[in-house]
Amino acid sequence: MSQDPVELTRGLLTTPAGLRNGFLDVLGESTTAPAPTFAQRAMNSPLVATVYERLWRPTSFYMASGITARAEQRRAASALRLSTARLLLDVACGPGNFTGSLAEQLADGGVAVGFDISEPMLGRAVLDNSTARTSYVRGDARSLPFAEGTFDAVCCFGALYLMPEPFRVVREMVRVLAPGGAIAVLTSYAPEVLPIRFALNAGARLIGLTMFDRDAFVDCFASAGLVEIEQQTQRALQFVAARKPG
């Protein structure tokens, strides 16, 4: 797998894509990302794209979970079994900080494909986190433009609570995951203590976020036939990983 990562990724796509600003685009210039809520509009802001991984995400996620970005990346690499994976799909990759970091931990010749709908985010990813092991694609995660069983590992960290159809996105992630492959998500968690749950849900609704309960993704993974499901909860975040039977 020594070919250019962009051309390798183009070969994986089931939808024609133009190369624009360093990323492959299956949506085209006339298509804009749906952004009805404050949080979704923020993710399509060039300013937010610039500061997101340097300041916003590390600070907010540490407050929400007590876990540093480096610890997150180590946990992700372990859960996704990256040392034996060659193709990784990072859904809602944002500016690519996780994509670039996880790509370095893939097996020899491995490539990580960062996937997002936001042009500003992908622009930052190309500028800040492009390597010989990464490529980036713009598209809608509700209909991933890849064939069934394409990727050895699939992840989505810190984005499902922003999406209008998060479980449809997860089903797509499972579809493109190869047999024996690993999947992991990091998303919001509403603790079972009622006053805390009520406060978090109320605050999240104001800015257009969804708070998920303990069973949401465990049940989703189980209903999709995944096995070895593991869940960790920390404050207002949950990490759920599983494997597709081989």
Q: What does the secondary structure layout of this molecule look like, with pairings?
A:
Layout: H1 5-12, E1 18-20, E2 23-25, H2 38-43, H3 46-65, H4 69-79, E3 87-91, H5 97-103, E4 111-116, H6 119-128, E5 134-138, E6 151-157, H7 166-175, E7 177-188, H8 194-207, H9 216-223, E8 227-234, E9 237-243
Parallel strand pairs: 2-5, 3-4, 3-6, 4-5, 6-7
Antiparallel strand pairs: 1-2, 7-9, 8-9
Helix pairs in contact: 3-6
Protein name: Similarity with UbiE/COQ5 methyltransferase
Organism: Mycobacterium parmense
GO molecular function, one term: S-adenosylmethionine-dependent methyltransferase activity
Description of the molecule:
Helix 3 packs across helix 6. The longest helix is centred in the N-terminal third of the chain and has 20 residues. The chain is built from nine helices and nine strands. The mean pLDDT is about 85. The protein has a single domain, classed as Vaccinia Virus protein VP39 (Rossmann fold, 3-Layer(aba) Sandwich). It has about 250 residues and is of the alpha/beta class.
Q: What key attributes describe this structure?
A:
alpha/beta, Rossmann fold, nine-stranded mixed beta sheet, 38% helix, 23% strand, globular
